[in-house]
Structure formats: structure tokens, C-alpha cells
């Protein structure tokens, strides 16, 4: 009898709880969601494909860099061309290819023995930030780390701490995507088919890259730092309503140049896939004709004509 009465009381309390909350699981519904599981090694390897090759290089993620932003030296190890167009705000430029790289990094370390030095480059498939750490360590410079997500992730995550064409803060929608770049990319055969009276061909290769003209008497030349010449050609294309056809050495510099064209309001333009080397490959098969020279020159550090950062990959 006592047991029956106790059960009745307990049942009443439970029923009252249901009426009050509207659910038997109301208490659980208010419980905080479990924390997400940490990324597995496989997930990180997929997201950062170069990390397994640089297991001795310490890395910093985007959240950590944002928290420590004012307490670290941020070093851009890319070319002046890339730095002058899209970079992390307050970053200093010390190109990895500069012969004085170690000397300049050591100067930062001498300013503060404890302040971390964070190297970055374009993104997850760029080796330069990792190589910068190894080069600094080999020179006995301590407390160096790689921000291997690079400018691509940073600009999307923190536009307020990024600079585009000398402006800050930036707008995320200004960052070009790979899809946007591909929409203006033609294979060499299709590119050549467009060469004619309704187009202007522009060779933007550096002087040391120019073995010969691909389209004799049908093209104009201007290096990416020759702002005046570039502007004149772009205005001519707009005024005469002609398609601007642009090629470089191996198809990399034009990724940056797209920003310049968009900034100038030009919409009718195309790039040649693979650049001059792609043209040679398409005509003669994959040969080494000029490849090493052009690939090396492709990395030559030049100052942009008002800049043009590479498309931010989706």
C-alpha cells in the first residue's frame, strides 16, 4: 500500500513536469550541444596537403593568428607583385627568394627575442611559408611558424585586416574565384582563333621571358609594372570594342592581372591557358623549349601596375 502510494505521487510529479515543459526531454533540449570532434589527421592532410612533407614546421591556424595578431611579426614571403596587391594588414615583405632573406628576418628577431615570427604565402598548396620556416631555423633563428592557410583564407575570414590594391578594409565580394578566372580562360587553339581584326593581343611577359613573338605584327607588349602602357591598351580595347587577348609565360601571372582588368572595368578579355609554354606545347607537343627559362622568370619579383592578386580558390 505504501509502495503504491509512493508510485502514484512520483507519477503525478512526472506528469506535472510534462505539463510544465511540454516534453519529457525538455531538460535535455536545454543542454549545450556537444563540442565538435577535433579534425582527424586524415582531414588535416586533405585540407593541408603539404603538411605531411613538412612535419618539422610548426603551424598556426586562422583563429590563432587572429588572437595573436598584435603580438607577432607577420611576414609575407611572396614577391613584391603579390604583396602590393593582396596582403595581410601590417605584414612586412621579406621575399623568400631575396638573397637577404635571412638577414632581414634576423633583424626582426633582434627587435624582440620572444615575439613569434609568422610566415605566410598564397594558400594551402604554396610551399613558401614552410620553406621560410626551415630556412630561418637553419640560420638558428628561433620562434618561427607558418600560417599555411595563407592570404586566400585570411582575406575571406578577416577582410577588416586585409589590404587589396592598397585599400583596407576590403570587401569579400571583390575577391575573384577560380570559376571567374576559368570563365576567361581559353586553350591555345581557341585563343589563336580569336586573333584578328576584332581583338588586341597583349604579351605581358617580362623582357627576359620573351624569346620571340607568338603572333608577329599582331600583338602589343607591356610588362605588368608598366602601368601607363597597360592603361593605354586597356582603354583602346574598351574604346574600339575589341576583345583583349592576354598571355604570359606559363599562365600564372595572368591570374593576378585579372584583378587589374576588372578594376579598370574591362569585361571582354581572355587569357591563354598555359601561356606561351602552353602555346608551344599545343603546337609541337610537350617539349622543354624555353620551359625552364620561362618558369624561372615567371617567379621574378616585379612591382604591379596597381596590383592584381590571384583568384581566391573556392
Main sheet?
A: 5 strands, parallel
* Rounded radius of gyration (Å): 27 Å
Number of structural domains: 2
Helix content: 25-40%
Helix-strand category:
alpha/beta
Number of distinct beta strands: 11
Residue share in β-strands: 5-15%
Poorly predicted ranges (pLDDT <50, ≥5 residues)? 1-10, 13-31, 289-309
| Number of helical stretches of at least 4 residues | 14
Distance between the termini: 71 Å
Keywords: Signal
Region (Disordered): 295-314
Domain Rhodanese: 68-163, 197-288
Pfam families: Rhodanese
Give the SSE map:
Blueprint: H1 2-21, H2 26-29, H3 41-47, H4 62-67, E1 73-76, H5 80-83, E2 86-88, E3 92-93, H6 101-111, E4 117-120, H7 128-138, E5 144-146, H8 150-157, E6 162-164, H9 178-182, E7 185-186, H10 188-193, E8 199-203, E9 219-221, H11 227-239, E10 243-247, H12 253-263, E11 269-272, H13 275-284, H14 291-298
Parallel strand pairs: 1-3, 1-4, 4-5, 7-11, 8-9, 8-10, 10-11
Antiparallel strand pairs: 2-6
Short description:
The chain is α/β, with parallel strands linked by helices. It folds into two domains: 41-174, Rhodanese-like domain (Oxidized Rhodanese, domain 1), CATH 3.40.250; 178-298, Rhodanese-like domain (Oxidized Rhodanese, domain 1, 3-Layer(aba) Sandwich). It is built from 14 helices and eleven strands.
Descriptive account of the structure:
Mean pLDDT is 83; it is low at 1-10, 13-31 and 289-309. This protein has 14 helices and eleven strands. It has two domains: 41-174, 3-Layer(aba) Sandwich (Oxidized Rhodanese, domain 1); 178-298, 3-Layer(aba) Sandwich (Oxidized Rhodanese, domain 1). The radius of gyration is 27 Å and the shape is elongated. The protein has a five-stranded parallel beta sheet with strand order 7-11-10-8-9. It has a four-stranded parallel beta sheet with strand order 3-1-4-5, with helices on one face. Strands 2-6 form a two-stranded antiparallel ribbon. It starts with a helix and ends in a 16-residue tail after the last helix. The protein has 314 residues and is α/β, with parallel strands linked by helices. The longest helix is centred in the N-terminal third of the chain and has 20 residues, at 2-21. Residues 68-163, 197-288 form the Rhodanese domain. Keywords: Signal. This is Rhodanese domain-containing protein. Residues 295-314 are annotated as: Disordered. Residues 1-25 form the signal peptide.
